Amino acid sequence: MSGKKSKAKRQPPRATAPHLVNAAIVQRTARAVLSVDMSDVVLRDFVPQVVVGLCRAAAAQSIVVAALTRAGQASSAAPNRRLVLESAIRLLWLSGLSKTDRHTAASVMLDVDRKETNDTLAYLQKQGQEAPFDPTEMNQFELDAPTKGPLQEQARKLRAAVLGSESEPWSLYAMWREETKYAHPSGALAGQYAPTHDNSHLQSGQPEPMDPELEAHQLVQCLIVAATQQILSDEGLAPDVASRITNAFRAQSPFTFDWPE
User: Fold this and answer.
1) Would you give the DSSP letter of residue 133?
2) Would you give the end-to-end CA distance of the chain in angstroms?
3) Are 254 and 41 in contact (CB under 8 A)?
4) How far apart are CA 122 and CA 124, in angstroms?
5) Which of 2, 96, 125, 150 is the most exposed place for a label (fewest CB within 10 A)?
6) How many CB atoms neighbour CB 56 within 10 A?
7) What's the pLDDT tens digit per position in 222-255?
8) In this structure, how many other beta carbons lie within 10 angstroms of the beta carbon of residue 257?
9) Biggest alpha carbon–alpha carbon distance for the chain
10) Averaged pLDDT of the chain
């Protein structure tokens, strides 16, 4: 048979945009991390809890980052990207500490959160408001949290943790600083969404994401799961337990570089 349809040139299939391909990978690997069952892990102290918690939190945020990117709203994911980057920095910082210092650092991190919760409750009480939360059990939990010293400073301030890291993660910190400008109602955020034209008239706009195709985000995910495994292994967890998250992630990731043993 011959005809217009048969003679028409077949159009090659359109390639999927890189940001859509990478967003699917980010979501797939993040969900793999969140699906890992660690309920049988016996906590000798709270370091594994903090480490696994940060890893999972970053995975949950990665799913949101990918969803917003696929929807054309990547600029709105700055708070989510910021949390992922901060989690990576914190895990790299913790991985470079000795076991003793890591225990102290995790204690201080938890103590800082406890103090902030108590401050919030005190503020609400001062305003004559009640909060449906009883802090008794939280306050009775014993923490080895010194109030002074470099670890205390690093646990409280991200810049101090960056400078105190075994290998200073300057690139992650630079990205975190840029994302921070768009993660709260700053002048930079206002200026990006309402830029001026000819220094006189207002326009509408939005920030340009530093990682529009999520290539860097995938690498940050790798850093997070690798650091998590390294810390869990150093904390004495059995190899098959310490590597659970990494193995689940790696099974869904296109990256093939060497992972920690």
Assistant:
1) -
2) 62
3) no
4) 5
5) 2
6) 19
7) 999 999 999 999 999 999 999 999 999 999 999 8
8) 9
9) 86
10) 90
